[in-house]
Amino acid sequence: MFYWLLKHVLVGPALRTLWRPRVEGLEHVPRSGAAILASNHLSFSDSFFLPVMMRRRAVWLAKSDYFTGRGVRGRLTAWFFSSLGAVPVDRSGGRASEAALRTGLRVLGEGELLGIYPEGTRSPDGRLYRGRTGVARMALEARVPVVPVAMIDTEKVQPPGKAIPRLGRVGIKVGPPMDFSRYYGMSADRAVLRTVTDEIMEELRRLGGQDYVDVYASSVKSGQGAPVSAPRRPEPSDDAA
Predict the structure, then answer these.
(1) pTM of the model
(2) Is the pLDDT assigned to residue 151 strictly greater than 90?
(3) Contacts of 204 (CB under 8 A, 6+ apart)
């Protein structure tokens, strides 16, 4: 499979040699069976480092823009994400969000490891932003554990807007699987979904040491919201996904 060629021959050896990722906790990733890999998102390069360092292949939900770019760069990006096994999803909201959830549940139903960025987009400033509740809904409906992953310093080697990464060390910390079986059968309760999501985000904050901002990163990027100046921990609320 071309994925393994990328990982072990074409891309993986160079990443390991040049950036020397520090990896902790890979033993927490289940060797088989359905589970969700939930990661913070600091840089475009997260999509390179994490799959390369993982022992098990994960199917990632990736924004559809990565598959529709034009020109040589657009075609190369689409080819790369397809080779990694990424699945394009529309993040425009509404019916598109429901379709993305159904796609994720299909992947989990096939016993795969599903990778997702709960923030929904890259952090604009290196802080950890509010999680979208789709990750909680999939975990409860599919009845699978959530494995938290913290990417560390990837935004320093490839800041937003930079096409070519600079040299520097990055880190990956994987935490123990999170069991939400106490909430099974409650995936229609928005307060429960927010509680589960906030627990996941708090674990990501603990693993990666980021400041937490209780605002959606997409709102900050679009200018519709402003991040608070002081870091906060996730607090349950009853807002919609």
Answers:
(1) 0.84
(2) yes
(3) 38, 39, 40, 118, 128, 148, 149, 150, 210
